[in-house]
């Protein structure tokens, strides 16, 4: 039996744009379904919003995104960050560069006291990201 934990991010109306942005960074296969296509009761004004979007990246990462309906308000603040980590420095730096475009670095991607390279940012959609590139053990 397999269990997987992956981020599911809710937006109010720009999930399609966010998915296109993340797809340009992570690559992979993109699956979209609107409220009209999903068969769920919905406000007709929200018919073309994304009920479920899923990005399956070639390296096994999965990112899910939706437009929350107006009847489900999104909290103003979140205490969640998506974390990317591993030892493929070129790939992780590429993700950092892509996510940084139009975003706000909170901590630059640089050598950390524990020996890894680490940084934090908020992307242009307001999603917090942490990137950790494994260093050489001391």
UniProtKB/TrEMBL annotation:
MF terms (GO), sorted A to Z: methyltransferase activity
Biological process, per Gene Ontology: methylation
One matching Pfam family: 3-dmu-9_3-mt
Record carries keyword Methyltransferase: yes
InterPro entries xrefs: Glyas_Bleomycin-R_OHBP_Dase, PhnB-like
Keyword ATP-binding annotated: no
Ranges where the PhnB-like domain occurs: 7-131
Organism superkingdom: Bacteria
Keyword annotations from UniProtKB, A to Z: Methyltransferase, Transferase, Ubiquinone
Name this polypeptide is given: 3-demethylubiquinone-9 3-methyltransferase
């Amino acid at each position: 039996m397999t269990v997987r934990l992956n981020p599911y991010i809710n937006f109010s109306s720009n999930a399609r744009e966010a998915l296109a942005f993340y797809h340009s960074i992570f690559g992979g296969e993109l699956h979209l379904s609107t409220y009209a296509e999903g068969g769920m009761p919905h406000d007709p004004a929200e018919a073309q919003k994304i009920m479920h979007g899923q990005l399956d990246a070639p390296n096994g990462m999965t990112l899910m995104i939706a437009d929350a309906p107006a009847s489900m308000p999104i909290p103003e603040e979140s205490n969640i960050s998506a974390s990317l980590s591993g030892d493929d420095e070129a790939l992780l730096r590429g993700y950092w560069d892509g996510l940084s475009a139009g975003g706000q670095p909170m901590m630059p991607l640089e050598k950390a006291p524990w020996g890894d390279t680490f940084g934090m940012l908020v992307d242009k959609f307001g999603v917090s990201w942490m990137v950790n590139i494994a260093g050489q053990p001391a």
